[in-house]
Amino acid sequence: MAGGTGRTWWAACVMGAMLVPTLTACTSGAESERAAPGSVQSVSTVRRAQLESGGTARWAVDALPATLNAYQFEADAVTDRVAGAVLPSLFTLDAEGRPQLNTDYLRSAEITEREPRQRVVYTLNPKARWSDGTPVGADDFLAQWKALNGEDKDYWSARNVGYDRIGKVRKGPEAHQVEVTFTRPYADWKSLFTPLYPRAVTGDPDVFNDGARTELPVSGGPFEVADVDGEAGTVTLARNDAWWGDAALLDELVLAAVPRGERRAALAAGDLDIAEVSPQDADRITAARHEPAARHTAAAPAPDADGAAGDPADSGAADPGAADDGKRRTEAVPSAAEALDDLARARLAGDEVEVAAEQYRAAHAAAQHARERQYATREEADREAMGDLVVHRAYDASWTQLTLNGTSPALADERVRWAVARAIDRDALAEAVHAPADLPVRPLGNHLRTLGQAGYQDNSAALGDAGAESASALLDEAGWREGGPTADAKPGTAAAAPLNAAGPAAAQSAALLRQSAAARRAAGDEQAAAETERRADDAERRAASLARSAAEAAAVPPRAKDGTPLELRLVLPDGAEAEPLRATARRVAAMLATVGIRAVTEEVDAARFFEGHVATGDFDLALFSWPATAYPATDARPLFAKPRTLPGGTLRVEQNYARVGTDYVDQLLDQAAGELDEKEYDALLDRADARIWAAAGSVPLYQRPQLVAVRDTLAGVGAFGLETPRYQDIGHRR
Which of 13, 112, 220, 238 is 20–30 Å from 590 (CA)? Predict the structure, then answer.
């Protein structure tokens, strides 16, 4: 997990790759709606002196946190966001995911001894105090270690990794120092004590388990929890006047639970100031800010050109405003409908028919004119309402991957897993997601680190030669023959169906973009026109690619072995939020169909997707996402540890839902966790990642777009990627 809080990866993982990462400090620099180089982050940044003190900012979240204790199973991304604003973080992450000393709390933190035991001495900022005036000190460290090391079963903590390697916590040799001695070397020691809770929470199991779910007794950050309103769906963070660092610029930061499909309307109405939005909503917001008025001349209602730039299959939930727009347009033309009904009911002849028809044509023309005028007026109002929003675009700090269940009959054969992994065109999948979001197209090539992260290396070559030819050879070797068991088995046709629908949609997107480019060029905005033309070119290439894939998928029948077709269940969550994931699944199914693998997609209740299917092994293939982490040796180990059979025959898989692992991967990750030399640490992780690729239990695909709309009066916020924010630097411009 990006923030290194120590909660379970199960709790951190979210369907559809929708995770809000821990955020980052803001520094002065140029402001832009376009992604930063490499798309690591895009943040509106100015100097604090250019911002005013006061005011409120409302930030959309998916739901209220189930707990304010980041070390409990129910903790989620919103829990982390609250903790980041109100509690001490000893180390924060920079844009490349590297831990950095947080000088608001620490003067220094260093390994003072390696033999016979690793010893770390933290020198605290003497100004660091809880909001009740109590100094932050060794007692807080001691209480947190005892609560999280796993020895006291009265504490319901998510896990004890890292804390279980500590043998002693005590006051240091000098004032304001804390000394931590480890029983075993621990490379990821900087992940510990972040966030740091007061001993009033960690010193009492009842408060830790129940009390801290809904309130925190004190604050140790620039904000404090002022109110949690379940009915209103808000968490209000107020400025902490006892904070010793740079004062929070905002009076209040309100986290508001707003469904993603409702966020564009809430932004336009002024009810939100910061919100992660879908690609189509992001494009509509950008168009409202920059597109010339010529684009909004009255015309028959049609999809917004920029909003339709991506394949609709990738755009997520349907635009909720579209249904309302259609309803309003229908109500605006009752005269046309009535005239048509009158004409249908009438038994007219001769000139009566002509008169009635003329009346109908006149009524229809008037209604059409009124509809176009109303649509243009509404579009103009919508454009004006969103004209003060900026969209920041970057890669999200989570990664979408395909999990292959190694215990399913066909996938127990590693050759079939290799074939599945090699048949998937990861570049094409990344393009389908990144291009509509206007991000550089880059598939993910690492299980342990993400794009732009320090130490990232693409190790996908360890899987072997990619492509249909290589995949087909592996299936032949495994005994799965072409031709299928019966003449009527035609999975290729089924797999091609969604592509046959998506191809024309992508072509329509390209046509709409061409119209938008022409309007921008007519208005004299040549740069914007050229950019829109580029996106139209991309859309046309996607349309052509989809058409080719559909033809290939339809042409190949399923393979079979001993009369059984090679059919795999690809399980997915239902609901609008997971539609982008299902769009990827349709593409994956079509790619597999080209080599004779039938992937049958099955939508299940989103609330039961993990518990009822992924965790229990009730799937062959599954698509979901994991959060990125700055501490992969610790946080990624449960995902790839070799499953162990417990007494009684139960298989302990931790979070390795592929149920595929090796002793060697375990050894490499264990060595990395205890390796204090950074270069050797990186080398061990790369070797482990290459072995994970070779096992073919999980195939990384891409990082989803993180598109954050921010009111242009605000600075210090945007698409942060891996970096940790300075919440005190979020503020309104003077």
Answer: 13
pLDDT higher than threshold 70 for residue 503: no
- The residue type found at 377 is T
| Pairing state between β 714-715 and 234-239 | unpaired
Cβ burial of 26 (10 Å; 0-12, 13-18, 19+) is buried
DSSP assignment, residue 24?
Answer: B
Backbone angles phi, psi at 29, to 5 degrees: 170, 180
The answer, as to whether pTM is greater than 0.85, is no
Q: Chain centroid to CA 426: how far? A: 18
Task: Answer whether the bond into residue 292 is a cis peptide, omega within 30°.
Answer: no
Q: Measuring CA to CA, which residue among 360, 376, 371 is closest to residue 332?
A: 371
Report how far residue 580's alpha carbon sits from residue 236's, in angstroms, rounded to the nearest whole number: 31
Give kind and range of the element (H or E) at residue 403. Answer: strand 398-404
According to the 3-state scheme, what is the secondary structure of 323-387? HHHHHHHHHHCHHHHHHHHHHHHCCCCCHHHHHHHHHHHHHHHHHHHHHHHHHHHHHHHHHHHCC
Instruction: Give the CA angle between residues 635, 638, 639 to the nearest 5°.
Output: 95
What are the backbone angles phi and psi of residue 573, rounded to the nearest 5°? -75, 150
Give the domains, in start order, of the chain with CATH numbers: 105-220 (3.90.76.10), 398-489+557-702 (3.10.105.10)
Report DSSP state, residue 404: E
Cis amide linkage into residue 440, ω under 30° from 0:
no
Question: Do 488 and 524 contact (CB within 8 A), yes or no?
Answer: no
- Are the CB atoms for 122 and 106 separated by under 8 Å? yes
Cα 191 to Cα 628: distance, rounded to the nearest angstrom? 14
Residues in a beta bridge with 238: 224, 252
Residues 6+ apart with CB under 8 A from 348: 356
In whole angstroms, give the CA distance from residue 430 to residue 442.
Answer: 6
pLDDT of 160 strictly over 80: yes
Q: Determine the average pLDDT of the residues in 69-81.
A: 95
CA distances from 606 to 375, 612, 698 (A): 36, 10, 21
Q: Return the percentage of the chain with pLDDT > 90, whole number.
A: 67
How many residues are there in the chain? 734
Beta carbons of 187 and 130 less than 8 angstroms apart: no
pLDDT in tens, 701-734: 999 999 999 999 999 999 999 999 999 999 999 9
Residue 37 pLDDT exceeds 50:
no
pLDDT digits (tens, 9 = 90+) for 237-269: 999 999 999 999 999 999 999 999 999 999 999
Banded pLDDT at 312 (limits 50, 70, 90)? very low
Distance CA 549, CA 592 (A): 10
Residue 133, phi then psi, degrees to nearest 5: 95, -10
Which pLDDT value is given to residue 350? 52
pLDDT band with cut points at 50, 70 and 90 for residue 376: low
**For residues 253 and 267, what is the distance between their CA atoms, to the nearest angstrom?**
16
Contact 65, 78 (CB under 8 A): yes
Instruction: Look up residue 726 and give its amino acid.
Output: R
Distances from the Cα of 468 to the Cαs of 381, 462, 475, 545, in angstroms?
A: 51, 17, 10, 15
Encoded tokens for 224: 């404090």
Yes or no: say if 577 and 16 are a contact pair by the CB < 8 Å rule.
yes
